[in-house]
Amino acid sequence: MTASDTLAKATATDTLANLAGSLLDGSVKVVDCAAPLGPDTPLLKLPPELAVDTPKIEVHEISRYDNNGPFWAWNWLKLGEHSGTHFDAPQHWVTGKDYPDGTTDTINPQAFVAPVNVIDCSKESAGDNDFLLTTERVKAWEAEHGEIREGEWVLMRTDWDQFNTDEDKFLNTTETGPHTPGVTAECIEYLIGKGIIGWGTQCIGTDAGMAATFEIPFPAHNLLHKHNRYGLASLTNLDLLPAKGAILIANPLKIVKGTGSPVRALALVPAA
């Protein structure tokens, strides 16, 4: 081991020790960015001619300190991989189907912990349910907060999580289709060019509600997974995260050949 390697190892050890101390003394807080997962969790609805929907989540009791198990309680679950707050792996989309590391059991776990950028679009989304984040808006955000760097997450804050206990409001579907905020194809291409590890939203999916009608349909899914990047959807509490300076932990279950997974997404943030 060289002198520079020794110094780097010592620096990393100090960094982890400082983080451990900050967690213990409360100067770093853990923010829960996941919605409750259960039978009432809103799920994506797709046109029947396009796809079969994810079934409703079911929780079945096996035992609860009774004849089926006198000292323990446990349940079995029925749920789709892309239910509630969830992680999209590259093989979720046809454009990412050939990546050998594109399923939840093959992704390098280094990808599950990364710095995060939070772009606040809550005011625009409150005024326009079909609001789309553009490249120009991201560049203006970078001019104010700093460059988005390679290997970081980018999350779109819309405060849409306020509706996640009411499926009708969360999906916001009318006779013209679902109306929820999202991102343009050009913006996703810009972020991929910056080297982001993934993109996330507070809505039911990583795309806008009307994304099926875009020139590139479902651009977040289509382009992210084409480039072996990841998605997060139905996130919560992004109003508690700074624009920069937080660490996002979003690790899917290690499902064999999994295209995605519900996650308990967490953020490490400086205390106020």
Query: What is the string of SSEs from the N terminus onward?
Result: HEEEEEHEHEHEEEHEHEEEE
Mind describing the biggest β-sheet? Answer: 9 strands, mixed
Enumerate the strands of the largest sheet in spatial order, edge to edge or round the barrel.
1-15-13-5-7-11-12-4-14
Distance between the termini: 40 Å
- In helices, the fraction of residues equals 10-25%
Structural class designation: alpha/beta
Instruction: Identify low-pLDDT runs.
Output: none
Q: Which of globular, elongated, flat, extended, rod-shaped describes the shape?
A: globular
Relative strand content: 25-35%
Task: Determine the mean pLDDT.
Answer: 95
Using only C-alpha atoms, the radius of gyration works out to 20 Å
Helix tally?
6
* E-strand count: 15
Essential attributes:
single chain, 272 residues, alpha/beta, 9-stranded mixed β-sheet, two-stranded antiparallel ribbon, 6 helices, 15 strands, globular
Description:
The mean pLDDT is 95. This protein is of the alpha/beta class and 272 residues long. The protein has helices at residues 3-25, 122-127, 135-145, 167-171, 185-194, 219-226, and strands at residues 28-32, 58-66, 69-78, 86-88, 113-120, 132-133, 153-157, 173-174, 177-178, 182-183, 198-201, 230-233, 246-249, 260-262, 266-270. It has six helices and 15 strands. 23% of the residues lie in helices and 25% in strands. The radius of gyration is 20 Å and the shape is globular. The longest helix has 23 residues, at 3-25.
